[in-house]
Design brief:
heterodimer, A: alpha/beta, Nucleotidyltransferase, domain 5, 6-stranded mixed sheet, two-stranded parallel ribbon, 4 helices, 9 strands, elongated, B: alpha/beta, 5-stranded mixed sheet, two-stranded antiparallel sheet, 36% helix
């Protein structure tokens, strides 16, 4: 009778985990391929306003970004707490001197291929508490550079029904 | 150990939010050439609605102060002019290829803001204006095609866009510094 007693009673058999690393690697690859890295560091604090009628940016490679907001804490000593414009990695020295925007747009245009240039889009990412004065200035300057396609960065949120 | 590290890595990858690129697309008007005369921009007074936002984010549409929540209906009434009110915009019967003659409103929304307006208020108003137009387009495409605007194919969307134009003009800001 004793011959038929099961040897490892109550214990689960070990699961074969030899293929787990492969699965994990595939998931990792998937996320790495899907994720687009942010190219630059934002030195101004931007919390985009809410809107409901928003559209997705279709082609990220055609977009250039202008950030407007108050400098984040470690830059406040240098730039103060008023709204500032950030182009690429630098905060503009002087808000009233908008020639740097012109240079920025020209440089961004230069980077694009000839075919894509007419479709260039400028994405204005401004903080929701920014005053419109500075944004109007930027818009006027963009008109002067004839970069007319713009997008106001906004996040989804219901304001009214 | 390696498994735990990997699982932690995956967890953080999933939890991290990537900033999505979304927003309101607009087309700025080109700078008018210096020698252009101002007088050719004459538009009949009834065809224009002035939407103004002051530095305290208060809204004025037409000539009455109102809340943002009322703006959409005001704009829809202005653009459709259902009772052919002589104070609301006139309609012009246009022959749109594929649709035939359609009365198209000549209304223009003129948006003006102060330098002190907050960005959120400005975007909220822009959003309401676009929403009003989008709803009118939906209504129109429901009536003619029996489908919502977003469900139409590109040609049909073009027709609807012609029948319900989005005429939002942004006035030059009040005191742009001259250079």
């Amino acid at each position: 009778m004793a011959k038929f007693i099961k040897e490892n009673k109550g214990e689960l058999p070990q699961m074969n985990t030899s293929s787990l690393p492969d699965i994990v690697f595939i998931i990792l690859m998937f996320f790495m391929v899907c994720t687009s890295m942010r190219q630059m560091e934002t030195k101004v604090r931007v919390r985009t306003p809410q809107a409901s009628e928003i559209a997705k940016l279709e082609r990220k490679d055609l977009a250039s970004y202008i950030y407007i907001g108050t400098p984040s804490r470690q830059y406040q000593k240098e730039y103060g707490t008023d709204s500032r414009i950030q182009l690429n990695d630098v905060i503009c020295k002087d808000n009233s001197d908008l020639s740097s925007i012109r240079d920025f747009i020209a440089a961004e245009r230069e980077k694009m291929s000839e075919v894509d240039r007419p479709f260039m889009q400028v994405n204005i990412k401004a903080d929701q508490d920014t005053r419109m004065g500075i944004i109007s200035d930027v818009k006027q300057e963009l008109r002067r550079c004839s970069a007319l396609k713009i997008m106001y960065g906004a996040r989804k949120g219901g304001i009214t029904k | 150990m390696a498994d735990i590290a990997f699982i932690a890595l995956i967890f953080f990858l999933m939890v991290t939010t990537m900033d999505k690129e979304e927003g309101i697309s607009r087309l700025l008007p080109p700078i008018p050439p210096e020698d252009q005369k101002v007088e050719d921009q004459k538009v009949n007074r009834r065809n224009i609605i002035q939407v103004k936002i002051n530095s305290n984010d208060r809204l004025l549409a037409g000539s009455q102060p109102m809340d943002v929540s009322q703006l959409k209906d005001k704009i829809k009434e202005f653009m459709t002019n259902p009772y052919d009110d002589p104070n609301l915009p006139e309609k012009e019967v246009k022959d749109i290829p594929g649709l035939g003659p359609v009365p198209v409103s000549k209304g223009v929304i003129s948006l003006q803001n102060d330098r002190g307006t907050t960005y959120q208020a400005y975007i909220t108003v822009q959003n309401e204006l676009i929403k009003a137009i989008n709803e009118l387009r939906d209504d129109f495409s429901m009536k003619t095609f029996g489908k919502k605007y977003s469900k139409l194919d590109e040609d049909q969307q073009g027709m609807v866009r012609k029948a319900v134009p989005q005429n939002i003009s942004e006035a030059e800001p009040k005191d742009v510094r001259k250079k």
